[in-house]
Amino acid sequence: MILPGDHVSLTVVRILDVINKTAPYFEKNGIESPRLTIELLLAHALKKKRLELYLEFERELDETTLEALREMVKRRVGGEPLQYITGEAEFCGLKFAVDRRTLIPRPETELLVETVLKRKPGRIVDVGTGSGCIAVALAKQLPGAEILAIDASREALEVAAGNAKRHDVEKNIRFLHSDLLKALPDSFTADAIVSNPPYIASGELAKLPKEVKDFEPVRALVAGEDGLEVIRRLVVEARRFLSPTGFVALEMGAGQRATVEQLFVGANYTVAQVLKDLQGHERVIVAVPL
What is the pTM of this model? Predict the structure, then answer.
């Protein structure tokens, strides 16, 4: 069937056979949501929607498809995230191309997008755009907005530009290679500066799940000894470019709210909002200039 090292030759292998054999194998190896995982891998291999599999459980699979599935199962058991294997992640109801050049979009970051959308800014800067998920999601909902997506990684910008084109918003987004806001001209002003920055302390990296610490780009995860190195810089730099009625909206780590709020206050902002994610963690902070 599809498991590594499985040399049993069967005349017929059907979709349901693969699901029934691989789901327990995934569970034994500690893979979260084992049945869902193999269904998503099957859907990817067959270029179908997952729910379409339920109409084709008796479909026979050829050896080429089985071989591709064997390799994907091996990668997943080895810890590689499902999204990197399929090359796709969902965010704000949109499908984004992802690979090891960028972080995988997280559901928590959708709260950041929702927060920005409610304020309807006209000119937005997305700092550390990564896959472009924030910039593209905002562009889809705010077609009149002018969006600048920034990243220090040229490789990440390539992924982001591809996702903008994929969702037909490439005309609404400009991409800029820059270390935070350093490359912006002094005359530039923004209504919103938005970011999901790195916010994990360097000492915490080893404690992260294998699929995160061994596969996702460390530079997009870790920000110094306290996890606030990037936020500390961004709070100060953003102040120079905000319009008088503008705002900064940042994602932050659990337990960082008090320190991040102090950083904003110390840089002449007032904190307007702090929002909790579905797990109850204070996740998004919005600040406006004094």
Answer: 0.91
